[in-house]
Every structure is written in structure tokens, then in C-alpha cells.
């Protein structure tokens, strides 16, 4: 898929409830699962891990692994769920993930990644894509053959992309920061290494046949517009969770498409039937409402809304009652405001 706008995979964030909530606000954007390891698919509760509501499509499965055989078998299993794209994680900066030879550390092993891409292409006819960083640093996780602990040059990334693209990947989602694999938390890795958007622009300019999507620090419509002049797409990460109303403008970036221009009131009203259905299935109120917590980001009533949807809840209150109460109590000018 060549999606102009996509919402990044985020651990403990982009579960199926958040994806349904997102789909109310953007019909066209490509959504991603949380990162799912090949071993989890092979050995875990597959229905729990892979199930999704058809409303969520178009939807990509992001998979993590380091063994081509495991990746192949996991994707063959996932074929029954009919995801729209399969994405290989070569960008997660977590030292725990890197210690298992998954995520961003894979950028030091481009030939292994190429083998995994070949296995993925054999397992599915769906688009196979890669999410990576512009570079990596790590004293104890990079192979000694490199003779250095920092792979941060543009040439390092370009070499990785060239080798992996020959294996059949033609779409690369590039986070414009290096990943520091030791000493920084995942959160710090999203904030401390400086952005190098120019490297991603150069990658596209020098590889026009590849589909290059930029990721990292994109927070406004103006950011998106600027990037789309130089690359093929933009992936929105934390800003999509920290300010979900931002999603209501995304469809305007797709040719021939326009946003519905929903108000916050309409978004809540559309989410209530889903909450009622999922609570009947036994899902907890908090698991459903927690993803809405920033719907009133930087608006009047934000604090009240957060208080309403955060447990402990009043006795006898379920998700739909809480959301209806919010519609009664929150400022109407904010509820009915359009972006």
C-alpha cells in the first residue's frame, strides 16, 4: 500500500480499541498493530494477538523477529487474518528488543534482513515493508566486524536500504533519528537524538523508485505538508496518541479525499456503540476509554474529561454512561468545534 498518512505502531497504545477510535476520525490512513513478535504468533493465543475489527482496515501487521524461518511461519499463520500489509520492525530502540536481535539492531545485519524479506515475500502476496532508523549506536550489540560502535552515516543507511530493497522490499518507513541501543529508554530515544530529516529527503531523491515514508516528530498539518513535498508519505507517531483530534485532518492529504470534519461530540457519539458492544463482550471500561484521554488536548474541559474517564469510576457507571455524562458536562463550544 502507498499510504500518504499512516499511524505508527506503538507498544501499549495501538491496540484494536485505539485503532477503532482512530478509524472514526480518519477513514483513509493506514493503521498499524502494535509490534508483535514472530514467536508470539507461533506460540501464543493467536486470536487474541491477531484479531481485529474489519472497520480498522486498511491495517498493517508489524512483526518483529530475527529468524527467517520463524518469520515465514508466523506470516503464513497471519494470512488467515487478511491484513493489508506486513511490516518488519527494524527500528525499535529498546535494549531488551535489541538484546534479542530484533528491532533497530537489525540495521547492522542487512543481509539477514534481506533473508527475512525474501521469506516474508514467499509467505504472502501482501505488500512487505520495512520500518527502520537512519542509524544506530551500541557498544555491546553491534558485530565486531564493523570495528566501530556507531552506524550513523548516511552511507550506512543507504547501504542497508540498497541490500534490503534487492530482496523485494520497496517501501521503507524511516524514523529520522538514530537509535541508541544502550543507555537510553525508548522514550528518550524519541526525544534525545537529533532529527535528521535531510537524510530521509536525500534517500528519496537518490532512490526515486522506492516508496519512502518519513517518521519522527511530526505534530502539525504544516509538518505533514512540508514533508510530503519531498517524500512519499508521513507516519505520525506519538502526536496521534497525545492529540488524537489531529487525526481528523489526515484524510485531506489523500488525493480526491476530504475529511468529514467531525466535532469531538460526533466522535464520542460514534464511539459509544462500540464501547457498549465491547463491554458486553467482557472488555473493561478502562481498556476502552483510556485511548480517548487526550481527545480534548489543550482545550477547555480537558481536565474534567480526564477525571471522568479515569478509574475508579462511580458505582453503576459503565463506558457509555461516562461518555454521555461527558457530553452533558463539557463545554459545548469545544464539543461542537471543528478543526
List keywords for this structure.
single chain; 339 residues; alpha/beta; TIM Barrel; Four Helix Bundle (Hemerythrin (Met), subunit A); 2 domains; 10-stranded mixed β-sheet; 16 helices; 10 strands
Your description of this structure?
The structure is a single chain. With about 350 residues, this protein is of the alpha/beta class. It has two domains: about 5-250, TIM Barrel (Alpha-Beta Barrel), CATH 3.20.20; about 265-335, Four Helix Bundle (Hemerythrin (Met), subunit A). It has 16 helices and ten strands. Strands 1, 2, 3, 4, 5, 6, 7, 8, 9 and 10 form a ten-stranded mixed sheet that branches. Helix 4 (about 70-80) links the parallel strand 4 and strand 5. Helix 1 packs antiparallel against helix 12 (about 265-280), helix 4 (about 70-80) packs parallel to helix 6 and helix 14 runs antiparallel to helix 15. The radius of gyration is 20 Å and the shape is globular. The relative contact order is 0.12. The model has no long low-confidence stretch (mean pLDDT about 95). InterPro entries: Aldolase_TIM, DUS-like_FMN-bd, DUS_fam, DusA, tRNA_hU_synthase_CS. Its cofactor is FMN.
Amino acid at each position: 500500500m502507498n499510504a500518504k498518512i499512516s499511524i505508527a505502531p506503538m507498544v501499549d497504545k495501538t491496540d484494536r480499541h485505539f485503532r477503532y477510535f482512530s478509524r472514526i476520525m480518519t477513514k483513509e490512513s493506514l493503521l498499524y498493530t502494535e509490534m508483535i513478535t514472530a514467536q508470539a504468533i507461533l506460540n501464543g493465543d493467536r486470536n487474541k494477538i491477531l484479531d481485529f475489527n474489519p472497520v480498522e482496515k486498511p491495517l498493517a501487521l508489524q512483526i518483529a523477529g530475527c529468524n527467517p524461518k520463524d518469520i515465514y511461519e508466523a506470516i503464513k499463520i497471519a494470512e488467515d487474518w487478511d491484513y493489508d500489509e506486513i511490516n518488519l520492525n527494524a527500528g525499535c530502540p529498546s535494549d531488551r528488543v535489541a538484546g534479542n536481535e530484533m528491532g533497530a539492531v537489525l540495521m547492522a545485519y542487512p543481509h539477514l534482513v534481506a533473508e527475512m524479506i525474501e521469506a516474508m515475500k514467499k509467505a504472502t502476496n501482501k505488500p512487505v515493508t520495512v520500518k527502520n532508523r537512519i542509524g544506530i549506536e551500541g557498544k555491546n550489540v553491534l558485530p565486531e566486524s564493523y570495528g566501530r560502535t556507531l552506524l550513523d552515516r548516511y552511507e550506512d543507511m543507504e547501504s542497508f536500504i540498497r541490500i534490503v530493497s534487492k530482496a523485494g522490499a520497496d517501501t521503507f518507513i524511516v524514523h529520522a533519528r538514530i537509535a541508541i541501543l544502550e543507555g537510553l529508554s525508548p522514550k528518550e530515544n524519541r526525544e534525545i537524538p537529533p532529527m535528521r530529516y535531510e537524510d530521509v529527503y536525500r534517500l528519496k531523491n537518490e532512490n526515486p523508485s522506492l516508496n519512502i515514508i518519513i517518521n519522527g516528530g511530526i505534530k502539525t498539518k504544516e509538518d505533514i505538508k512540508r514533508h510530503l513535498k519531498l517524500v512519499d508519505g508521513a507516519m505520525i507517531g506519538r502526536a496521534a496518541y497525545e492529540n488524537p483530534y489531529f487525526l481528523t485532518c489526515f484524510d485531506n492529504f489523500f488525493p480526491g479525499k476530504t475529511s468529514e470534519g467531525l466535532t469531538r461530540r460526533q466522535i464520542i457519539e460514534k464511539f459509544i456503540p462500540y464501547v457498549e458492544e465491547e463491554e458486553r463482550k467482557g472488555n473493561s471500561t478502562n481498556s476502552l476509554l483510556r485511548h480517548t484521554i487526550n481527545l480534548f488536548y489543550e482545550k477547555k474541559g480537558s481536565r474534567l474529561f480526564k477525571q471522568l474517564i479515569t478509574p475508579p469510576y462511580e458505582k453503576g457507571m459503565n463506558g457509555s454512561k461516562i461518555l454521555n455524562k461527558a457530553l452533558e458536562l463539557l463545554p459545548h463550544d469545544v464539543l461542537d468545534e471543528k478543526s
